[in-house]
Design a protein that fits this description.
It contains eight helices and no strands. The chain is mainly alpha-helical. The protein has one domain: AhpD-like. Helix 3 runs parallel beside helix 6. The longest helix has 28 residues. The chain is globular and about 50 Å long. The mean pLDDT is 96.
C-alpha cells in the first residue's frame, strides 16, 4: 500500500492527521535525506507494520542503501537506548548513573548516514519513546553543530504524526478484528 493510499484509508476522525501528513510530505525545511530518514526511523519506532511498510516504500529510493540502513539503525539503537537511559534518568538510586551501560552502540559512530542526520533521527525517535535524557543529549549535539531550530522542530513534527497515525491504525485494526 502506498503512503497516499494509507493516508486516504485513515478514518474521518483522523482528518487532522491526514492533513498534517500531507503538509509534512511537502515541507521543505528538512532536506530530502533528513525528511526521508525522519519518516523511516519514526515509522519504525511507532511499531505499526502497515505504516512502516508504506513509509519505507515511499522513501527507500530517495536514500542510498547505506543511509537507509542508518535511518533504520536510528530506530533500532534508540529503541534500546531510550529504555535504558529513561530508567537511569527516572530511577532514584544514584549508583545507576555511575555504572557503565555495557550495551553495544557501535552504530552511533558508523551508521552509514551523515552524523547530524543520524542525531536528528535519533532525537525524533527518542521523542516517540519518551526518553528525556536522550532528547536533551541529541538536541544539545544538534544545536552545538548549528542545526536550526526549525529543522529540529520539523523532525519532531514528523515523529508526532507518525506516532499518532500508528496509534489510529492499531486501534482500527483492533476494532476490525
Amino acid at each position: 500500500m502506498s503512503l497516499e493510499a494509507l493516508r486516504e484509508s485513515l478514518p474521518d476522525y483522523a482528518k487532522d492527521l491526514k492533513l498534517n501528513l500531507s503538509t509534512l510530505l511537502s515541507e521543505t525545511v528538512l532536506n530530502d535525506t533528513q525528511k526521508a530518514g525522519a519518516f523511516i526511523s519514526c515509522a519504525m519506532a511507532s511499531r505499526n507494520a502497515r505504516l512502516t511498510k508504506a513509509v519505507v516504500e515511499e522513501f527507500k529510493d530517495k536514500l542510498s542503501p547505506e543511509v537507509l540502513n542508518g535511518a533504520k539503525a536510528a530506530a533500532a539503537i534508540m529503541g534500546m537506548n531510550n529504555i535504558y537511559y529513561r530508567f537511569i534518568h527516572l530511577a532514584e538510586h544514584a549508583e545507576y548513573k555511575t555504572m557503565p551501560a555495557k550495551l553495544r552502540m557501535n552504530v552511533i559512530a558508523n551508521s552509514g548516514a551523515d552524523k547530524m542526520d543520524f542525531e536528528l533521527w535519533s532525537l525524533a525517535v527518542s521523542s516517540i519513546n519518551g526518553c528525556g535524557m536522550c532528547i536533551e543529549s541529541h538536541d544539545a549535539k544538534l544545536r552545538g553543530h548549528g542545526i536550526e531550530t526549525a529543522v529540529i522542530q520539523n523532525a519532531i513534527r514528523i515523529a508526532a504524526v507518525m506516532h499518532a497515525i500508528a496509534g489510529v491504525l492499531d486501534a482500527e485494526e483492533a476494532l476490525a478484528a
